[in-house]
Structures are given as C-alpha cells and as structure tokens.
Amino acid sequence: MLTASRLSLTLNHKVILNDIDFCLNSGELVALVGPNGAGKSSLFKALSGEYSELFDKVVLAGKPLSEWPLTDKAQCFAILAQQSLLSFPFKVAEVVSIGRTAKSCSAERNNEVVKQAMAEVDILHLADALYPHLSGGEKQRVHLARIFAQIWEQQNQQRYLLLDEPTAALDLAHQQQILQLAKAWSQQGVAVMAVLHDLNLAARFADRIVMLKQGSIFAQGNPTEVLTTEHVKQVFEVDMQVLPHPTAGYPILIPDERLP
Ligand SMILES: Nc1ncnc2c1ncn2[C@@H]1O[C@H](COP(=O)(O)OP(=O)(O)OP(=O)(O)O)[C@@H](O)[C@H]1O
C-alpha cells in the first residue's frame, strides 16, 4: 500500500497541496482527476518522492520513502513522469532496457523481458528505430515499455505503477490499449495510479477516482459516486450530462446541450 497522510505543500508562497490523505491499494486502479492547476502533478510528484521535505509523509509498503534505498525502491516502484526528456540517439530497445538496470537477471532474461514489454505496448517493430525520431505517441509507449520492464517480474513485494497522463499524445486506439494494460496490471495485484484528463477514460477504467480541486481532495469513490453532474460542475465549471453506459453501466459524460 502507498499512503500519504496530511500532505501539504507550499511553493513560492502558494499553497499547492492542502492536507491531503491518500492511499493506493494493491490490485486497484486509481484515477487522479481535476482541472488544470488543481494539483494532480504536484500530488503525483509528492507520491513519487520528488519533494524531499515530504519523504516522511509518504509511506510505501509500510516504510517512509526516506527509508527506502533507491535500488530497492526501483525493483517495485515504477513511475511514468509527464516529460521524459531524452535526446541522445538511443535505439528504442536500448531505452526500454534502461528499465532493467540494476536487475540481477541474465542478459538473456533481460532481453526477453524488453521484447515482451515492447510487444505489450505495440512497439516491437520500432525496436531498432532511433528514439529521437519517433512521434510523441510512440515515445510515450517506449517509456511505458521501459517502466513495465522495470517491474515485470512478480516478486515477494507489492508492485506499484504511477502514471502521469499516460494517454497524453496517444491516439484513440492506443489510449484504450494503454488503460486496458494498466487495468490488467492492477488485476494482477499491482497498485496503479494514473493522472487522467479524460473523465470518460477514468470512468471506464478506474476502480476509484480521486477528484482534486485547488490542492484538496474534493471527492473520491467509485466512478458513479464521483462523476456526478454536480461534482463536475463545481470542480470543472462545465455543464455535463452523466448517463449510464448502455451495456456496461459505467458513467458517460456528454456536454449538456439542453435548453435552460
Ligand atoms: N514551483 C512552483 N511555484 C509556484 N507555484 C507552482 C509551482 N509548481 C506548481 N505550481 C502551481 O501549483 C498548481 C498546481 O500545479 P500542478 O502542475 O500540480 O497542477 P495539475 O493539476 O497537474 O495541472 P495540469 O492539469 O495543468 O497539468 C498550479 O497552479 C501551478 O501553477
């Protein structure tokens, strides 16, 4: 379990996060949603261990982040940051193999996992392509393969996947594919959190949605509980109608075009 209690963050005299209690359990996919500037990336960074002043408030598998040796954490805790800058002309397979650094497996096993991870996100055909030449969506899938490779093996400890806008830059088919994969990882017991802008994707794939507004948690619960017309109006300041999906039942949001 990954938990944060009473998480507050002020940067340059601005309150960014305000008294947030958060938990992420094994086997669930949690979507973090909210309008621009709500604090999603800041909470994501806090949970990822980017703010050393919050290390003691974030507890991973019973131990505060401050007590985790980096190499141990890397075995179970994989993070897809919003911007993964990399301009050196590495081949795609080499970028994915970065996820296998510090593994004690044989080179053969590492190569096998790299291939499997590339196949999972549909980039096997790009294995020898130069990373800087790829499109934005292809680069995103390379980094997903890299972090999947990082936690590929089921070990004795809980595994965590934290994804900041994993579907940004992806086309419709790959958005669905990546969230289906994230869901599949959670169904294998991995604790998965994803920052998502698309509320319909969150509704379809998340077990739980945490909705942020101005640095605080405004609502959390299952998609039907959180994605109500009233919540969306209060947090995103738009009028949306919420309908149940005709066969699957999860909420679908559509613009409210009804006359006043
Ligand atoms: N170093 C900083 N100093 C001052 N304010 C900051 C700093 N970093 C972030 N902020 C502010 O914190 C707020 C939350 O930012 P954050 O990036 O977490 O929002 P977000 O919900 O991820 O937004 P978006 O959907 O636009 O990515 C924003 O208003 C941002 O301007």
TrEMBL record:
InterPro entries: AAA+_ATPase, ABC_transporter-like_ATP-bd, P-loop_NTPase
Alphabetical UniProt keywords: ATP-binding, Nucleotide-binding, Translocase, Transport
SUPFAM superfamilies listed in its UniProt record: P-loop containing nucleoside triphosphate hydrolases
Database matches in Pfam families: ABC_tran
Keyword Transport: yes
Superkingdom of origin: Bacteria
Domain ABC transporter: 2-239
Keyword set includes Translocase: yes
Classification via Gene3D superfamilies: P-loop containing nucleotide triphosphate hydrolases
One Gene Ontology term of the molecular function aspect: ATP binding
Listed NCBIfam families: PRK13548.1
Reported function: Part of the ABC transporter complex HmuTUV involved in hemin import. Responsible for energy coupling to the transport system.
Designated name of the protein: Heme ABC transporter ATP-binding protein
Organism, scientific name: Motilimonas pumila
